[in-house]
Amino acid sequence: MSTGLPNPISPTVDDVAALIRARTKDNNGNEVGTFTDDTRPTAAQAQQAIDHQVVLLHTKVGAIGDGCAAVATLAAAYGAAAEIELSYFPEQARTDRSPYTYLIARWEEYLDGLVACVEGNLPSDGDDGDLAAGLRYGTVDAISGTVSAYYTGRTWPPLPPWPEPPTVEPVEAVDD
């Protein structure tokens, strides 16, 4: 899946290995600190997981500018590490013997940060030092009150209780 072109948000194999060092053992059981041809996964397989995460991030948030590249790189690294855990050590990922749940939680945090960064909703120093200069207002989903009342069974404002209908006494028929 790799295009061979450098991607500014793509973490290195070493970046991913730093997150899951215990998975960088060679055929002799020695921890080598990075993925190589002698580790499981290999460096090429780790690079494939990285490529998957870069594509996933672009799919989720669109174009990623230079200002958001650092958080995107971290998100891709954590996502690739989680993918490696799930792909190569699934029996451990289902138990407490794997950092998979930790990696996914961190990936989700970085993904949320990346979304906020791409949308421009992170404070930044503007030219005049104003921290709010980088804030952008998002959109609000406005749901029709009629539709909302229909689907929820509630109305707003609440309707007053209906008055009781007047009781009508039966009228006796008069013969003419």
Map the helices and strands.
Blueprint: H1 13-19, H2 43-61, H3 69-88, H4 90-93, H5 100-119, H6 145-152
Helix pairs in contact: 1-3, 2-3, 3-5
Keywords summarizing the entry:
single chain; about 180 residues; mainly alpha; 6 helices; about 45% helix; about 0% strand
- What coarse outline follows from CA principal-axis ratios? elongated
Average pLDDT confidence is 80
H/E series? HHHHHH
The secondary-structure class comes to mainly alpha
Query: What integer value in Å does the Rg equal?
Result: 29 Å
Could you tell me the number of beta strands? 0
In percent, how much strand structure appears in the residues? Answer: under 5%
Helix content: 40-55%
- Largest β sheet strand count, sense and barrel closure: none
Distance between the termini: 99 Å
Q: Quickly count the helices.
A: 6
User: Which stretches of 5+ consecutive residues score pLDDT under 50?
Assistant: 1-6, 124-137
Descriptive overview:
The protein is an all-alpha fold and 176 residues long. It has a domain at 13-126. The protein contains six helices and no strands. It has helices at residues 13-19, 43-61, 69-88, 90-93, 100-119, 145-152. The longest helix is centred in the middle third of the chain and has 20 residues, at 69-88. It is elongated, with a radius of gyration of 29 Å. The N and C termini lie far apart (99 Å). The model is unreliable at 1-6 and 124-137 (pLDDT under 50).
